Predict the 3D structure of the following.
Amino acid sequence: MDSLKQMANEYSVLENVDKSSFQRSARLLQSIWRVEHEYEMGQVSNRNGPPRPIGSRLPMPWAQEKLKNYLTENIRNVVRSEVLDPVKSKGKLYGKPRIFNDLLSSQPLCFNLFGELTQDLQLATSVMKNLTAGKVETVTRIEFEWSPGQGDPIYAGDRSVFDVYVEFLTPTDTKGFLGIEVKYHENLIGKAATTTDRHHQISGQMACFDEAFLEDLERQPLQQIWRDHMLAGIHKIQNKFD
């Protein structure tokens, strides 16, 4: 057993689903973090028997009650407002209980990356200016799991959302936005969603995709990212962003 596998075994995260050293290292680091914080180990379902312990999860319902998957109290307050509030979270695709107990889930990562920025738009402006080489002048809004209209046929007509959505003004006082998809260790090899005529229409309107490669874009692992681009494109067109 190599040293990475040996450490993964020691920290109860030697999982067959991890196909790359990056995935295995990410899971191991999260278990090390959990141990250093003296948090108990959670469980994962087992098709051949009762749930088994795994080092990259926190125990439920403690994880939901304490929100220790989140790094600061500010971020926990954002999660309480966005995820635990039934009115604010209605219709949003938060994966429960993974958003609370899975240390490798991309949704908690979203809040850990951007939660503090929602509480301080001046800080968010500084960060986004830096990330976009000055294209952002002032951040005006940040949302999680956001779409201009889920299921609305004037957009993509599907359930696509931005994990994080940032609206801003440019240095010339025009309107802009960023649609952000957050991935952690996912391999994007799951079953592809159905592509519709509306997707093809939007793809053509955007005029930035090579028609010869549409079949590749409609398959995983590219499809979700392609659909994110189309959601951005049709939002820009319909709502007259610059």
Summary: The chain has ten helices and five strands. The radius of gyration is 20 Å.
